[in-house]
C-alpha cells in the first residue's frame, strides 16, 4: 500500500496539493485526505523559494503503509532464507537420510538433527525466523554452528554440524579413553571460551547447558551446542519438553525454585551448570555421583537447603585452584558466582598464562612421551647388554670358547677328533648321607661354595671343565636367589685336559690339578655340618 502526493509551493499560500492517489493498485483518488499542513513539517527548505523563475516548485511525496511494509519484509526474508547462500530453512530434499547421521546433500557433510517438540503442523514463525537468523550468525571455534531448521511439518529439527566424538558425557564414560589432567583442562578451557563468547552475543544465555550439550569434534575440540533454544521456543510458542529429575541435576537452585525463570535461563545459572560439568570432568562421573542419593532426593535438597548439598570432590582429584573455581561456580547465591569473563581469567592463571588447546596438549604429551621413550630405550638397552653378557658367560661355561663363538656368529660347528686327552672325574664321598641330613637349600649352598672354590682353582691350569650335564644323573640350573650360578646339582665334577686346546703336557696338568683340588677339599668346611669332613673320590684317564 503506497500513498503518492504531488504538492506545489506558492509564495503567497505555501504548499498546495496538486494530485493525491492512495492505493496504486486501484488508483483511488483521495485528495480530500491531504491538506497543506499534512506535509508542512515534512519538507520546508528556504532554497526551494528559488526553484524556478516564478518561485513555484512542485515536490513529490511517497508514503508507505506500515502493515504492508512488514508483510512485504516477512515475505522477502522467508524467501531469502529458503534459498541461496543464506538458506537456513531446509526441507527433506536437502538431506540424505539412509545414513546415520544424515548427510547434507548440498555439501556432503554429516549433520546432527535435534528434533523439536511441537503440536499440530509445524511452520517457522516470523519471530522465530529472526531468532534463527541471529543464532545462524554466531561463529566461534567453540560453538557448534547452526546450519538451519528443517521445516518439515511432521519432523521439525534444528540442524547443526556433526561431531564424531559425541558428547562430553559420552567421552567421560568410556574408560578406554585415557584423559590426563592436561586433556581435561583443555576441554574445560574450550567450554569456558565458548560460553564467554555466547554470553557476549544477543543470545546472552544458553539455558540448557549440560555435558550432553557439549560435543567434541574429530580434532578433540569441545563445542557448545543447543544454544538459543529458550529464545527460539518462546518465539515459536513451543512448550519445552518436561525434564526428568536427572536432567535437572545441572540446574541452579534459584532456577529449580522458579520454573518460569528456568524456561528462559540466566547467565548465573549457566555458570552453575559449568561448575557441575567441571565435577563430571574432574572425577569422570555423573553429577553428584559420589552421593548415595536418587536424582529426586538431590533435587529436593538443592532446592531447599539447609543443609547445603553439592558434589564432594577430593583434594587430590585436581589442582587446588581448579577445585576452588568449581566451588565458586556452584555458590548458593547467584550474585556470588563469577561470570565467564572472571572464570576465563581464573583459567588463564591456572594455565600459567598459556593458551591451552588440544594441539598444544598433544605436542606436550608427544614431547614428554619422546623423552620418556628415550630413557626407556636406554634402560632397556642396558638390561639387554647385561643379559647378553650373562648369556655369553653361560655359553662359554657350557661350551668351549671356539665353539661358542661359531654358534654366536651362526656358523656351523664341525666335529673334531682329539687323539690324546686326559679326563678327570670326581665325586663327594658320602654325598647321599650328607644330603639326607640337610635341607635342599643347604645342599645347594654346599655345592655352590664347593664348586666355586674348585672353579677358582682350575683357572690356573690349561684345562676345560665339563659340566655334569652330559651325565645321565646331572641337572643344570641357575639359582639367582644366591646371586651365583650353580652349574651342577650333583656331586660329579669333570675336567678335560688337551681339549679343545691341544697341549703336550695335558696329563701332568690334570694330575697336578687333581692334587690341588684334593688339598682344597681338605680345608673345606660345611657351614651346616662343620664337624663332618669333606672327602673326594678322584679318577683319571689318559690316552
Automatic annotation (TrEMBL):
Cellular component annotations (GO), alphabetically ordered: plasma membrane
GO biological process, one term: receptor guanylyl cyclase signaling pathway
Principal subcellular localization: membrane
Family annotation (Pfam families): Guanylate_cyc, HNOBA, PK_Tyr_Ser-Thr
Keywords: cGMP biosynthesis, Coiled coil, Glycoprotein, Lyase, Membrane, Nucleotide-binding, Signal, Transmembrane, Transmembrane helix
Membrane-spanning ranges: none
Protein name (Swiss-Prot/TrEMBL): guanylate cyclase
Species: Lasius niger
Lineage: Eukaryota, Metazoa, Ecdysozoa, Arthropoda, Hexapoda
Amino acid at each position: 500500500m503506497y500513498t503518492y502526493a504531488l504538492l506545489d509551493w506558492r509564495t503567497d499560500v505555501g504548499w498546495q496539493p496538486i494530485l493525491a492517489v492512495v492505493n496504486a493498485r486501484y488508483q483511488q483518488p483521495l485528495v480530500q485526505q491531504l491538506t497543506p499542513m499534512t506535509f508542512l513539517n515534512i519538507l520546508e527548505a528556504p532554497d526551494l523559494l528559488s526553484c524556478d523563475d516564478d518561485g513555484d516548485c512542485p515536490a513529490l511525496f511517497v508514503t508507505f503503509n506500515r502493515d504492508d511494509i512488514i508483510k512485504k519484509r516477512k515475505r522477502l526474508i522467508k524467501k531469502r532464507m529458503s534459498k541461496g547462500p543464506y538458506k537456513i530453512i531446509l526441507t527433506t530434499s536437502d538431506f540424505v537420510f539412509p545414513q546415520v547421521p544424515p548427510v547434507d546433500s548440498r555439501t556432503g557433510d554429516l549433520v546432527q538433527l535435534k528434533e523439536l517438540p511441537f503440536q499440530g503442523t509445524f511452520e517457522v514463525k516470523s519471530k522465530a525466523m529472526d531468532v534463527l537468523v541471529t543464532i545462524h550468525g554466531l561463529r566461534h571455534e567453540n560453538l557448534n554452528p547452526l546450519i538451519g531448521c528443517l521445516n518439515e511439518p511432521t519432523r521439525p529439527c534444528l540442524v547443526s554440524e556433526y561431531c564424531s566424538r559425541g558428547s562430553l558425557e559420552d567421552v567421560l564414560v568410556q574408560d578406554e579413553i585415557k584423559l590426563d589432567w592436561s586433556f581435561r583442562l583443555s576441554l574445560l578451557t574450550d567450554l569456558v571460551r565458548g560460553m564467554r563468547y555466547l554470553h557476549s552475543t544477543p543470545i546472552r544465555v544458553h539455558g540448557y547447558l549440560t555435558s550432553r550439550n557439549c560435543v567434541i569434534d574429530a580434532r578433540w575440540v569441545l563445542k557448545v551446542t543447543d544454544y538459543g533454544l529458550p529464545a527460539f521456543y518462546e518465539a515459536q510458542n513451543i512448550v519445552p519438553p518436561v525434564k526428568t529429575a536427572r536432567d535437572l541435576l545441572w540446574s541452579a537452585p534459584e532456577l529449580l525454585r522458579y520454573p518460569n525463570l528456568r524456561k528462559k535461563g540466566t547467565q548465573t545459572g549457566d555458570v552453575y551448570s559449568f561448575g557441575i560439568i567441571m565435577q563430571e570432568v574432574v572425577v569422570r562421573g555423573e553429577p553428584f555421583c559420589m552421593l548415595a542419593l536418587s536424582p529426586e532426593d538431590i533435587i529436593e535438597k538443592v532446592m531447599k537447603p539447609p543443609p547445603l548439598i553439592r558434589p564432594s570432590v577430593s583434594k587430590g582429584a585436581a589442582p587446588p585452584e581448579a577445585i576452588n573455581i568449581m566451588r565458586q561456580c556452584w555458590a548458593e547465591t547467584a550474585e556470588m558466582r563469577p561470570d565467564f569473563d572472571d572464570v576465563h581469567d581464573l583459567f588463564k592463571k591456572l594455565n600459567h598464562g598459556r593458551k591451552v588447546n588440544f594441539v598444544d596438549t598433544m605436542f606436550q604429551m608427544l614431547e614428554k612421551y619422546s623423552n620418556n621413550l628415550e630413557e626407556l630405550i636406554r634402560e632397556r638397552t642396558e638390561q639387554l647388554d647385561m643379559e647378553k653378557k650373562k648369556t655369553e658367560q653361560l655359553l662359554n661355561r657350557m661350551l668351549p670358547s671356539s665353539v661358542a663363538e661359531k654358534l654366536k656368529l651362526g656358523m656351523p660347528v664341525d666335529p673334531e677328533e682329539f687323539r690324546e686327552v686326559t679326563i678327570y672325574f670326581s665325586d663327594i664321598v658320602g654325598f647321599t648321607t650328607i644330603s639326607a641330613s640337610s635341607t635342599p637349600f643347604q645342599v645347594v649352598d654346599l655345592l655352590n661354595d664347593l664348586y666355586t672354590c674348585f672353579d677358582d682353582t682350575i683357572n690356573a691350569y690349561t684345562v676345560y671343565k665339563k659340566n655334569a650335564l652330559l651325565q645321565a644323573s646331572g641337572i643344570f640350573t641357575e639359582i639367582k636367589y644366591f646371586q651365583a650360578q650353580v652349574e651342577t646339582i650333583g656331586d660329579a665334577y669333570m675336567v678335560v685336559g688337551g681339549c679343545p686346546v691341544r697341549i703336550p703336557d695335558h696329563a701332568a696338568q690334570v694330575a697336578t690339578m687333581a692334587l690341588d683340588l684334593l688339598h682344597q677339599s681338605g680345608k673345606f668346611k660345611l657351614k651346616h655340618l662343620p664337624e663332618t669332613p669333606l672327602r673326594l673320590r678322584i679318577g683319571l684317564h689318559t690316552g
